[in-house]
Specification:
The chain is of the alpha/beta class. Helices cover 54% and strands 12% of the residues. The structure holds arginine. The site of arginine has 8 residues, from β11.
């Protein structure tokens, strides 16, 4: 949307320099809305013009700025042109600002901002996003929760920008842990408990058999034997494994649904056992595989620029490793989906692993490895529920919901809600997501329920609260139909501040798209919510003459639309009452 104004300024420059308008779009940016209200809205960077060769770099930049500003006239859109340090500032006429933005939001709705010229380079075609990827029978720890919400955000963002997104969950569904589970289930498994509470039961069996195996050599042997049966494809063992996998996936699906997340494919390490052997064969043929004295197979990555690296891809007993299966899985996906880019979301401890995966793929001649990337994130410390350490995703959701529900009961709002549980859950999830997305993904952080759930301040609860306040304003005063808008009635700086923030939405999305960090969008939405709070305080609807009330309602409704759009991209379902 900033488009219209950017275009206006770019077209002036196009005339001056005799170059196409498009070459100037990126030189113009919005000026952040700050506490001490700025009177200008857009800024043209003169150094950008020098970098692009439109102005000679040898001359004094300030003189260039001043002489260029003299040629940039005011018109029906631009109210004022001023010179800053190496920049030229533009102030847009307040009524044009209001008219254009409100018109655009109501015309484009959920597409607002997404068609901006700034974003047109962000379409990459088909994007594969691999995320969540828990290990069956093991803990679903905070790292998996982070991967789940970050991967969902990246998928939503890519989709919003017009990419064809494929969401893949790559389960830890193979390995000695299934030998343990198989052996353990024979001893302490119960079909009834498995049916009643599958994840819990599998986890219990797994913990117990591990403890036994520590003490008992016999248990270890039986676990090894069970895994060998799986590897050699013995039907009885496989049937039990399949059963464990199916019920676990069923449970995962149910819980992901609570987060509004759906995967196109549940793949996993098990599916790439055979292909991993093909990869080894190819590596051998290509002369990339070396056998060490210990009998393991390694790929020497020194030639690829990493002198310290020998990647082990084959155990001495002939079995494949995690990395071998990842190589196979990547090649498989390229064949199945012919993706244009692939994104893996895991904690940062796996950075080295993915670096090696991509390097080996390249060494094998798969140049498309350049279109693969790993998005790493940091650790969460101290995420606990009343039951103690987090073991299951569902416990976190229950805890968040329970706490929000108690807060709502304390303020007695829950009685007025149709479905307090659902509302509490949505507010709780928003709280978790915003807390997690506020900083750079790579940073570690300490988790604190008290801080996460604050109503005021920079939390997901605050975003939900703002959205529901705006909805309630519409319920009270909106007729569902807009009369003629008189934009001249929206001259106050508090209103202009909200409008200017809406103008920045495409820039926030662009930043997210460039570095895949959700913090830009989170901070945008928090800032918008703070501006809305000021607006709601200072620009009353109730008691104002109808045309003014109408104009203000339009303004708040536009803010509500953009807030909801942004929240959805984050993976938050906005609530209408809370
Ligand atoms: N299951 C793994 C874990 O919990 C994450 C899988 C990441 N994806 C991959 N392609 N290796 O650590």
């Amino acid at each position: 949307m900033a488009c219209f104004f950017r275009k206006n300024i770019a077209s002036k420059l196009a005339k001056i320099f005799g170059q196409p308008e498009d070459s100037f779009i990126s030189a113009v940016s919005t000026i952040p809305v700050s506490k001490k209200q700025q009177s200008s809205d857009f800024r043209l960077s003169v150094s950008h013009l020098r970098q692009k060769g439109f102005l000679p770099s040898a001359e004094d930049i300030q003189t260039q700025a001043e002489s260029l500003a003299r040629q940039l006239n005011r018109d029906s859109v631009v109210d004022d042109v001023t010179v800053g340090r190496a920049v030229i500032n533009f102030k847009i006429k307040r009524d044009v600002l209001a008219e254009k933005i409100l018109e655009q939001v109501s015309k484009e709705g959920h597409m607002f901002g997404l068609k901006s010229a700034l974003l047109c380079g962000q379409q990459k075609g088909r994007t594969l996003v691999e995320f969540s990827s828990p290990n069956i029978a093991k803990k679903f720890h905070a790292g998996h929760l982070r991967s789940t919400i970050i991967g969902n955000f990246i998928s939503n963002l890519k989709e919003a920008l017009g990419n064809d997104v494929v969401r893949i969950n790559y389960l830890g569904d193979w390995g000695l842990q299934f030998g343990m589970l198989g052996a353990g289930f024979q001893d302490y498994g119960s079909q009834e408990e498995l049916k009643a509470n599958p994840l819990q039961h599998l986890f219990e069996v797994y913990v117990r058999v591990n403890a036994e195996a520590e003490k008992d050599e016999g248990v270890r042997r039986r676990a090894g034997e069970f895994f060998r049966q799986l590897e050699s494809g013995e039907e009885e063992a496989l049937a039990l494994w399949r059963h464990f996998r199916e019920i676990s996936v069923g449970e995962y699906q149910r819980i992901y649904q609570r987060l509004g997340i759906c995967f196109h494919e549940y793949s996993g390490e098990s599916l790439h056992q055979k292909q991993a052997l093909d990869v080894l064969q190819r590596l051998r043929v290509q002369g990339l595989l070396r056998t060490t004295e210990k009998g393991t197979g390694v790929v020497d990555l020194a030639a690829a620029g990493d002198p310290s690296c020998l990647a082990t891809v084959l155990r001495s007993d002939g079995t494949s490793l995690y990395i071998t299966r990842d190589l196979a899985a990547a090649i498989d996906r390229k064949e199945a989906y012919d993706f244009d880019e692939m994104i893996y979301v895991t904690d940062k401890s796996q950075e080295g692993h993915f670096g090696q995966v991509f390097q080996i793929l390249r060494a094998m001649g798969h140049q498309w490895a350049d279109s693969c990337c790993h998005v790493p994130f940091g650790l969460v410390r101290g995420m606990k529920t009343r039951k103690g350490d987090v073991v299951f995703l569902e416990d976190v959701l229950e805890e968040a919901k329970g706490r929000v529900l108690r807060n709502m009961q304390a303020t007695r709002t829950s009685k007025e809600l149709e479905d307090p549980d659902m509302t509490a859950e949505r507010v709780g999830v928003a709280a978790l997501i915003v807390q997690d997305f506020r900083g750079p993904l790579e940073s570690d952080y300490s988790f604190d329920w008290g801080r996460v759930l604050q109503t005021q301040g920079d939390t997901g609860v605050f975003l939900q609260y703002t959205h529901s306040r705006l909805c309630s304003l519409m319920r009270m005063h909106g007729s569902g139909q807009w009369g003629l808008l008189d934009p001249a009635l929206l001259q106050e700086e508090q209103g202009a501040a909200v409008l200017k923030q809406l103008l920045r939405y495409d820039e926030a999305l662009l930043q997210c798209s460039c570095d895949l960090q959700p913090k830009h969008l989170v901070n945008f939405l928090l800032a918008l919510s703070h501006l809305v709070a000021v607006g709601l305080r200072t620009l009353p609807v109730k008691g104002s003459p109808p045309p003014l009330a109408q104009a203000r309602l339009r303004l708040f409704d536009s803010a509500r639309t953009v807030l909801a759009n942004g929240m959805r991209i984050l993976g938050v379902t906005p609530v209408e009452k809370m």
